[in-house]
Amino acid sequence: MTVTLRPENIGIIALEAYFPRRYVDQEELEKHDGVSAGKYTIGLGQSKMAFCDDREDITSICLTVVQNFMEKHGIDYKEIGRLEVGTETIIDKAKSTKTCLMTLFAESGNYSVEGIDTTNACYGGTSALFNACQWVDSSAWDGRLALVVSGDIAVYATGPARPSGGCGVVCMLVGPNAPLALEFPLRGTYMEHLYDFYKPDLSSEFPTVDGPLSVVSYNKAVDMAYQKYLEKLEQHDGVEKASIDNIDYLVFHSPYTKQVVKGLARMTFNDFVRGSSSPKYESVEEFRSETLETSLTNKLVEKAFIKTSAKDFAAKTEPSLYAARNIGNMYCGSVFFGLASLLTQVSSAELQGKRVALFSYGSGCSASLYSFRVVGSTEEIAAKLNLKKRLDDRIKVDPADFEAIMALREKTHNVKDYEPSGDVSKLYPGTYYLEKVDHMWRRTYGRVTNIANGHSH
After folding, report:
1. Top enzyme class of this protein (predicted)?
2. Active-site annotation holder among 16, 88, 205, 318
């Protein structure tokens, strides 16, 4: 009788990120839009916003991140047995983005690749990651590795929501013996039906948004997922009175970074409601009668706990907001760009043995809080991501030109018999781009010559 050893330390082995080369400065956008100074930079906590023209779509950005990842890490497509895509940016109601990515596998002759797209607002990538990790942890696993692709093009109609857009996608390699090991079964999940942000109009890229409801829903989801996570921590790790003190780093889905500040404040309030008597709560004792329900829209509670959680925020969450502040919202990719930022901002030596928790929220609504334990070096991940240098190597676009590009995207959404007019020279080397959409909506792609590898597609 053969005894099969279960794989250990299943999680993220490596990670690559892609974002467009062009951005608009939020301070300049404030002036251009004629809004009060600080509305986007302080009110939303945003600095720069990445965007793309008609040359890039969800397929092209996913092709870019996967191919760049495989080249950077020297991985053979034959080694991949599962590929999951988490996105809410759809260009087809039936054909998945994952199937388009199979063109990259053609040369290797590997067509035996499980997985498909997962969709629910900004949560799809988290569900895709869970699926991939659970596949490796199951008797269905065939010994190969998995890729999880997670990201979106986040665009809004002209108006107050537009500055909270962005664009980005990540590719993660999942398998055993990973430096970022998923902590099974530490996971708190919350699901509810509501209409806070959704995309019922298939003729438009823009969502329908109930902003105030979305903020309340995010906070409520933090409450519920966090409570469940702490319960698991107490049950499975034997932790007494679990709290933020048991988590070293907290990474949040970031629609805009100000919401993340509120998210951590919310967790701190949860600890307070659970009866924590830490000295840090001395200044907020007046809120002892508040409950999770009554406090959801209480601005005084929010303000007080933002102050109370400031020290934890600086140490545990601030390092994860580097990309979000400089790129904007990447929907499904947002929380993983937070993880990428953390790995870039905090050294591998400092991260060893630490617990990194991720809070993922998707409107409509679905949310999970889960964690990784850092059990190996993250140095190579950070070096290959090269995030700071790549963010510095971007092209700033005037707000008026940005508006014209957004108008072009809107006008050409879902058209057929079309050849894009965007300037390919404004893309990073190695970027895939849309060449044309034929009379049957079939799309063909090219690739900007990748100088590092000396080839183009």
Report:
1. transferase
2. 88
The amino acid at residue 347 is: S
Rounded Cα distance, 65 and 62, in Å: 5
| Catalytic-residue membership of 205 | no
Q: Which of 253, 318, 332, 365 is catalytic?
A: 253
Fold of 11-447: Peroxisomal Thiolase; Chain A, domain 1 (3.40.47)
Q: For residue 121, is it left (φ>0), alpha (ψ between -120 and 50) or beta?
A: left
Strands (E), 281-381: 355-362, 366-374
| Residue 88: active-site member | yes
> Coil, strand or helix: which one is 382?
helix
Hey, what are 22's tokens?
């062009």
pLDDT, averaged in runs of 10, over the chain (457 residues): 78 98 97 96 97 98 98 98 97 97 98 98 98 98 98 95 97 98 97 96 94 96 98 94 97 97 98 90 94 95 97 98 98 98 98 98 98 98 97 97 96 95 96 98 94 45
CA angle 207, 17, 98 (to 5 degrees): 65
Give every strand in the sheet of 22-25, ordered side by side.
48-50, 22-25, 395-396
The H or E element that residue 85 is part of is: strand 80-86
pLDDT at 457: 39
The pair of three-digit structure tokens given for residue 42, joined into one six-digit string: 């302080």
Does this model's pTM top 0.85? yes
Strand partners, 27: none
Q: Which residues have a Cβ under 8 Å from the Cβ of 7 and sit 6 or more positions away?
A: 136, 137, 141, 175, 176, 177
Q: In this structure, what are the phi and psi dihedrals at residue 294, rounded to the nearest 5 degrees?
A: -70, -20
Strand stretches in 103-252, DSSP E = 117-118, 145-154, 166-175, 180-191, 197-198, 208-209, 249-252
Of 52, 100, 122, 133, which residue is the catalytic one? 122
- In angstroms, the CA 186 to CA 372 distance is 9
Tokens at 70, concatenated = 């495989």
For 119, 193, 212, 414, the CA distances from 93, given in Å and listed in that order, are: 11, 22, 29, 12
Is the Cα torsion angle 183, 184, 187, 192 positive or negative in sign?
positive
Task: List C-alpha distances in Å: 92 to 97, 116, 127, 149, 413.
Answer: 8, 14, 20, 17, 12
Cα–Cα–Cα angle for 36, 330, 308, rounded to 5 degrees? 60
